Amino acid sequence: MKQLVSLAALAVMLSATGCTQQEVFTGDEENGEPVTLGISTGVLTTETKSVVGSDMITYTKANYASDALGMGVVVLNADGNGAYSGGEISTDHLWFMGDEKGENWKSISAKGENFVSATTAPYTLNDEVGTVYAYYPKTSTVSGTSASALTIPAPLQKTGTIALSDDVTNADLRFDGTSWVANASASKKKIICASTETDYLYANNSDRKVSNGRAADSPDRSIDLSMAHALTMVSFRLYNDGTLPGAGSLTKIELKNAETKTLIKTTEGATMKLADGTIAGLSDNTSDVLTRTVSSYTIPKEIKAGETLSANTYIVSGTVTGPKVARKISILTYPLTNISDKDIEVVFTIDNQTYTVSLPVTDVWAWQAGTNYVYTVCASQRKLEVTSVSVAEWNEEPGGNIEL
Questions:
Q1: How many CB atoms lie within 10 A of CB 268?
Q2: Which PROSITE patterns match (predicted)?
Q3: CA angle, corner 193, sides to 189 and 198, nearest 5?
Q4: What is the per-residue pLDDT across 367-399, written as a single tens digit (0 to 9) for each?
Q5: Burial class (CB in 10 A: 0-12, 13-18, 19+), 149
Q6: Residue 149, CA atoms < 13 Å, CB-side half-sphere
Q7: Domains of the chain by residue range
Q8: 348 contacts 244 by C-beta, under 8 angstroms
């Protein structure tokens, strides 16, 4: 946020629900110095750039130029019907950047070559009350001048590549070189998806008011922002029950509408409303396909007792099952309502063969924003089948079981 003059710099720490918060203010409200707006924020359930899957918005320091996107903040007046400064909305549209650990957030005007060299542009508050709206990732422009009209572009990633690494697994179990053991590694909560996915977040606050805090009964200069996901995540974990021949190399996933259906859409015209994360601009667009090329995903295969275990094979026991050793790979899509069985299909390319499966629906007959629907897929000689559907962190929910 930004307006007036400023003397102060701001440090902010973004974290997930149950957020740890750090605020540093150098403006002095008691002696008449300009007061800097302070922000702390957390993501409702869990990483970002490309997808937020941990409790911090982080990036690799060496990839600052491409991966450090920052957060956008807009400050409106008390009634939410105009810019806080009284001028153009661009004056009160701010860019906050954090370091690679997701700490020390500051308002900036230029990104620079690294976090340290980013040009700070602290935003100060006057006696008037302001209303705060925030979103991730920062865009160059925001449309609208009122609370109900503020939007940013929210295009969906139509194509992309999901590249896996042997040393990163988000499965329930991991192979330690001799056996499958509980996965206690930091990567267990890793969201494996295309690096170009964009996880749109918005501040889901009931209290958005701020001011310099000098007037009696006025709001404080600081605000805690609670960030929420505007999109839906659909994840797949595949395992071979031992009957599907071949190497089990998964090379492509296509998420598509069944014939005559138009639920899944992609468009450059979609927008996200900053007030509540609503996605708009889809009604006039035709149906589409979300395609992800996949590299280095070998479907784990069941073997018999006495055979040699590896990172790509497993022996069923009381603690080891196909679903538990399978890694999850994910795709972001727009939320959907009124989904019926067989409305949406997924096409898997395995060892150069394609398998098309209808996705079962969940209890709510929808793909809700902020929810990760995890489909467990059994690849067998008979067919590919969804064997369960769950909803879990992000929030994650079982999406169903599928058999190939």
A1: 11
A2: PROKAR_LIPOPROTEIN
A3: 105
A4: 999 999 999 999 998 777 777 676 544 666 666
A5: middle
A6: 10
A7: 11-152+195-225, 232-276+283-403
A8: no
Assign 166 a pLDDT band (cuts: 50, 70, 90): confident
Closest CA to 123 of 38, 184, 183: 38
Least confident range of 18-22, 178-182, 192-196, 355-359? 18-22
Mean pLDDT of 83-101: 91
- How far is the C-alpha of 219 from the C-alpha of 136, rounded, in Å? 24
The pLDDT of residue 384 is 77
400 C-beta neighbours (distance < 10 Å), count: 21
Give the integer Cα–Cα distance in Å for 201 and 223. Answer: 17
User: In which region does residue 280 sit, left (phi positive, over 0), alpha (psi from -120 to 50) or beta (all else)?
Assistant: beta
Q: What percent of the chain has pLDDT over 70?
A: 81
Task: Give the Cα separation of 182 and 56 in Å (integer).
Answer: 24
Please give the CATH architecture assigned to the domain spanning 232-276+283-403: Sandwich (2.60)
Indicate the residue type of 324: K
User: Residue 199 and residue 240: Cα distance in Å, rounded?
Assistant: 31
* Res. 305 pLDDT band, cuts 50 70 90: very high
pLDDT digits (tens, 9 = 90+) for 322-346: 999 999 999 999 999 889 888 999 9
Single pTM value for the model: 0.85
Residue 144, CB-side half-sphere exposure with 13 Å CA sphere = 19
Distance CA(117)–CA(68), nearest Å, equals: 13
Q: In the Cβ-directed half-sphere of 305, how many Cα atoms lie within 13 Å? A: 3
Contact between 375 and 385 (Cβ < 8 Å): no
- Average pLDDT, stretch 25-48? 53
Neighbours of 108 (CB within 10 A): 19
Tell me how many helices (H) and strands (E) the chain has. Answer: 2, 31
How is residue 131 written in tokens?
């209303």
